[in-house]
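Fold this sequence, please.
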Amino acid sequence: MIIRTLVLFFCSLPCFLLAQSREFNDLPYINGLPAEDSLRRLNLVIPQNVKSPAPLLIWIGGGAWSYVDRNVEMDLARKIAEEGIAVASIGHRLSPATWRDPSLNSGIQHPAHMQDLAAAVKWLYDHARTYGIDKSNIFIGGFSSGAHLAALITMDPDYLKAAGLPSDLFRGVIPISGAFDLVDYYNALLNSDRPELAELHVQAVFGPNKQDLISASPVTYLDNLSIPMLLISDITVQNYTRLFEERIQQTDFRNIQVIYANTLTHAALWKNMSYEEESPYRNYVIDFIRQNYRDHPTSIAK
């Protein structure tokens, strides 16, 4: 495991005791959402024994933008909520993925995933008081395809603006094991042992033109970096993470912590964070939120 520019303030951080939590599942974040639409919904885990409103981590699971399931992220959500942090696991509409399963032959393209995410953020922002959420302490993160979406919504201002949300809404962003330069991602697949994925995977999600990939890439918006970032990568996708890190290093932005889990594959890192009773990578996420919490740290009632 390699850690870069990571500082842990163990003594100065607030002490979060294990919190009981309450869950709200299948909450629609679109007004008038049809009952049969099971995707544009979110699951919310709220810690119960906190004296003040809880910080919120908005979390987008992975699945190649095509088979994301908010429900499989609940083990991770519950473990983070035990530390006094509310977690919203976001569902969104999905893209085709015939390369994985011939039956996955229909769906949406970018920017529909982002529009769904922005709508979910708007719903959570508007309902913060109802659920005991501190709307001044909202963080966003995701794994794999979710990492891409989390990074993009914090770097391309158009999505928050279109949803009527403040541009400084997020306190920090936590992209884990994603791809952030989609032109590079497309070319890497084109030159891999499965070149068909460049079309069936990347173009199916983002469109056939290079400009489509550029406009959907977080690296396009490096000049907009402004909030703290915790960037974590497994060994499988580390080249994409290193490219993102190198591009960020070419800017003046320095509020970034980078961690490489060099002994864990893509799936193994997700499982470690989700299922292990003690996960250093999950702890990095929790500590990052504590470090960047604004004004009044959550205190857990004893």
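The longest strand covers residues 133-143. The beta strands are 2-4, 21-28, 41-47, 54-60, 86-90, 133-143, 170-176, 229-234, 256-261.
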